[in-house]
Amino acid sequence: MEHSIDKNFRIKELIDNLPDIVISVDYPSGIIQYANVNAIERLGFSIKRAKTLRDLSYFVIPKYRRKYLQHWRDIKDGILIPSLVFEVKTIDCRIIWVEQKNIYIKQGDTVIRIHAVIRDITERKRLEEEMLQAFYFSENLFLHSPYIILLYDNEGYIKRQNMTFRAIAEHVDNMIPNYNVWKDKQIQKYGIDLIFKEVVRGRIMDIPRFPYTVKIKGEDVTFYFAGKAFPYMRSSREPEGFVVMLEDVSARQKREEETLETKRLESVGRLARGIAHEFNNI
Q1: Residue 91 above 90 pLDDT?
Q2: Which of 64, 94, 100, 142 is most exposed, with the fewest beta carbons within 10 Å of its own?
Q3: CATH for the stretch 2-126
Q4: Is the pLDDT of residue 237 over 70?
């Protein structure tokens, strides 16, 4: 008997020294038998007033109370739930995210008590939300960027493309199914494939301006593109493919060609006036 009391004392001392909230509950009644020091400090008056988990749920988890009690009913029905994640209202009226892990104490094959170990995961939850927002932002940026963005695998096949590329591609008559960039004659002609091969080796490369001709409504239309290419890496250190970002600079190319043509005509005009002036002096 003394050995049993001493053992229980040591277990309570161990539980009290844990940084987590620990609540020991009889099963299946839900009566709270013990709460550690951290539980009393974090939950305060709520844990002192509550006699059962049902009572406690009214005080500390008003938003998730029904869901939490449903989990408890599931446990009563024999479904042993290893962990739960929910919001809790603390003694200073702050709302924190917690994860509850259940430790089941059995007598033979029968569960007689549950130790609910509750850990504050507010910081982890905040980081997860920030990562999720960053993902949605980057995904939105990828899809709706004014630049053409293409993700190729190392074999040269397109794995993903954004809306800007699709807007152009849907008007192209001669789009090749299962397009492979390594086999594209126009890409090879201007040496862009050599740039992509350097990217696959892990380098970030600039893509100089190059023309690309496609058929739209039966007519040849030439676009001019320029941009950047960089390796695509996830968990491994080796590139799993490469990303190509291209800007449609066709309008800029046209303006430059028009400017050059204007300057050429001006030069011809000055030359013609000079020759005419020389003839007048003869």
Answers
A1: no
A2: 94
A3: 3.30.450.20
A4: no
Hey, what are 258's tokens? 């028009």
Q: Which tokens is 153 given? A: 């695998």
In which residue are the tokens 């008559």 written? 173
Identity of residue 260: L
Ranges for all domains in the chain classified under CATH 3.30.450.20: 2-126, 145-248
Instruction: Round to whole Å and give the CA distance between 84 and 98.
Output: 8
Helix axes 65-76 and 53-60, enclosed angle (nearest 10): 160
Residue 12's pLDDT band, with cuts at 50, 70 and 90, is low
What is the Cα–Cα distance from 112 to 23, expressed in whole angstroms?
14
What number of other Cβ atoms are within 10 A of residue 152's Cβ?
A: 24
Q: What is the pTM of this model?
A: 0.51
Distance CA 201, CA 208 (A): 19
Measure the N-to-C terminal CA separation of the chain; round to a whole number of Å. 134
Position 249 pLDDT exceeds 50: yes
Query: Which pLDDT score, from 0 to 100, does residue 6 have?
Result: 45
CB-based contacts of 99, cutoff 8 Å, min separation 6: 83, 84, 85, 118, 119, 121
For 154, the enclosing helix (H) or strand (E) is none
More confident residue, 67 or 209: 209
The answer to whether the CB of 164 falls within 8 A of the CB of 143 is no
